[in-house]
Amino acid sequence: MTTQREYIDFTAYMSKEFGNKRTPKQLTDLCDDLIKYGRSINNLNVQACNYGLSEKQEKRRAKIEKHINQIASVICTTIKINTDPRGSALKIKMPSGYNNDWGGEGYCVPR
Fold it and tell me: Between residues 85 and 20, which one has the greater pLDDT?
């Protein structure tokens, strides 16, 4: 579950990076969607690690990844989808190059 502090930090940084292209409402909707999809992908990652995914879950994952890629195209960046359940499920490549993960891959979406 995303804490209020994590949510505020995430939306504030997204606003700093992408705020000039979006209204505040559009930006908070994008942040909400990214958090929701990140949580869903993480749950599927845990399921895949422990038991494997069923055909229905594979289709759900593909559908979520499609939505994530649509969001990435809207904000004109790339979003890495991590398959390891231990870390952040989504990492956004920021235009400024800022990252908050140990691997330097991008800005981690809170879950």
Answer: 85
Q: Would you say how long the chain is, in residues?
A: 111
Note whether 107 and 92 are within 8 A (CB).
yes
- Quick one: DSSP state of residue 19? G
pLDDT computed for residue 1 by the predictor: 65
Domain boundaries, the chain: 4-108
CB 47 within 8 Å of CB 57:
yes
Cβ contact 10:35 at 8 Å = yes
| 18, 24, 57, 87 from 15: Cα distances, Å | 5, 8, 33, 24
